[in-house]
Amino acid sequence: MKNLFVLFHLCLFAGTLTAQPNILWAKTFGGSLDDVARAIQPTDDGGFILAGSSQSVDGDVSGNQGEYDCWVVKLSEDGIIEWQKPLGGSGYDVARSIIQTADGGYLMGGTTDSNDGDVSGNHGELDFWLVKLDQVGEIEWQKTLGGSSSDIITSIGQTSEGGYIVSGWSFSNDGDVSGHHGGVSGSSDIWVGKLSSTGLIEWQNSLGGSSDDNGHSIQQTSDGGYIVAGQTSSLDGDVVGFHGTLDCWIIKLNANGQIQWQRPLGGSGDDITYSIQQTSDGGYITAGFSRSGDGDVTRNINEGDQDFWVVKLSQRGAIQWKKSLGGSSWDEAIAIQQTSEGGYVVVGKTISSNKDVSVNNGYTDIWVVGLSNLGAVEWEKSLGGADDDEARTIKQLSNGGFIIAGITYTSADLYDCYVIKLSGF
Q1: CATH number for the domain including 262?
Q2: Which of 28, 110, 325, 417 has the fewest CB atoms in 10 Å of its CB?
Q3: Is residue 104 included in any domain, yes or no?
């Protein structure tokens, strides 16, 4: 670890809405080149597992194998590195998701174009890449999935019977991928794969139409099926009800991966959702951004480039409430989670410094917002320094606090992994 506590790098706004969480610690991780955090999960021992990518061969990083490696880091409760593991080959390898598995190990989901080092079985261009690690980061198995074109993982989860669910998007229509809607047009489909505990495909489904469709988030639901969130620009195929240039797209699948219902959300502008979670009432909460001011979206498009957009859906996908959040500039939600209190916490990035955003510390800030169960703002915080700071994920901890992971811009015009631990109330 760089042993750099960056509390001086944060400006914590003490608003007047309700009690707010405090910063317990904030740390950067990496070396002298680009290091990016994309996923973090609390672990059973009270610590954290962090995943992203690294170009570095120094500092906190040892064992880099190529241009970009997946980078997995085990942190203690206090943010001390317990072990770290670059994974990949001589090409481009990026981790986008990580979970702790039921056996105490970890599953990393990423993207690779390597076919050496830790990677074998590449199908062509970028492949989905899954790596199962034991408790100390040693590889138990690895699996490349995809076809002859590019295939990109964004979200993974362990299923109730011990297997795994994988989602992302694919340009392929061969190899492990079938049913692609775009044919040879060069467009992408959302791809969902159900895997065994050892990474064997049990079923797969390509979802979309003749234009680009990308998946960003997947979760197993209480009925044994799955909820998928992403984006679509299609007017045909599986997509019914498209609004504009780019819509949020929510898809409910049954346990065998077949569509039960689907719902494009948005207006005549660009609308994307990055995160979805089933809520305690059996419905769903999703978050991303909107540039629309019509259709499903209520916002004044003359007051900002784009806003956080949070939508609460019923069990069947009907809109129960929706909320545009931000200021007069550019605001983008990346992740959302229902809290133990029944409300929601949403995190992303902002350039704004007015309206819902109380403070901007310089260019892009991490912006965290606490919402009531009906979407009212209860608290908000801007976190960052004079340069670029972005959040990629947030998780609530068992004690009610939060862990945030993302990136911060360094004085060398490069990125470090950035992890912030917040208290509960």
Answers
A1: 2.130.10.10
A2: 28
A3: yes
Which domain does 345 fall in, by range? 7-422
CA dist 55 and 66 (Å) reads: 8
Mean pLDDT confidence for 78-106: 98
pLDDT of residue 70: 98
What CA–CA distance (Å, rounded) separates 132 from 191? 20
Is pTM, for the whole model, over 0.90? yes
Q: Is residue 29 part of a domain?
A: yes
Chain CA centroid to CA 88, Å: 21
The pLDDT of residue 198 = 96
What does the radius of gyration of the chain's CA atoms come to, in whole angstroms? 20
How does pLDDT run across 202-231, given as a tens digit for each residue? 999 999 999 999 999 999 999 999 999 999
Domain count, the chain: 1
78 belongs to a structural domain: yes
